[in-house]
Amino acid sequence: MLFRFAAPCFYAPELWTAGGTKLGDKHRLPCFAELEGKQPFADVRMAWSERGLALTVQVRGKEQPPWCRDSKIEDSDGVQIWIDTRNTQNIHRAGRFCHRFAFLPAGAGRRLDEPVAVLLAINRAKESPREIEPRQLRVNCERKSDGYFMAMHIPAETLTGFHPADHAALGFSYAVIDRELGWQTFSVGQELPFAEDPSLWGTLDLVR
Fold this sequence. Notes:
globular; Immunoglobulin-like; mainly beta; eleven-stranded mixed beta sheet; 11 strands; about 0% helix
């Protein structure tokens, strides 16, 4: 099976403010699960600048609050992002330019109501990106009656090999994970090992 695809990721001059970020309709990312007749439950948007990447996720249709624990990231509701700053496409094991970020709408703090942002290891990786401090990542979350709105910022200094002027495409995938609503992914789903195999990721073209 060979299926390559690319989607545009548009430039935004100001990625992050004290209030987070708001991205317009042109920044909405496609969900290729719609080709199989699946109905997306999350609106995922993304923008870039030389300062890094910004994303927003709006989850709708929930009747229960998200289940999140910063001590159990893998089991929590939230968003995971995979990024290859070299868009290698032909490797099956992650290298040092491959990253996996997790953002949770809650799970931290004494009352477990503060959002979480962390860089995670990729299973079977040959090499890992440079280590970062979790506080370098930024995340805001607003709870809604039927879900949540989460804004995320991945600064350039947390992305090994991020040089848009020289490498204007990223290997990319995402998964919005929810115990109530299921999984929404950028392309292939859990039937294939995309979480550890960069050759199964799509491409984002960084469009100015």
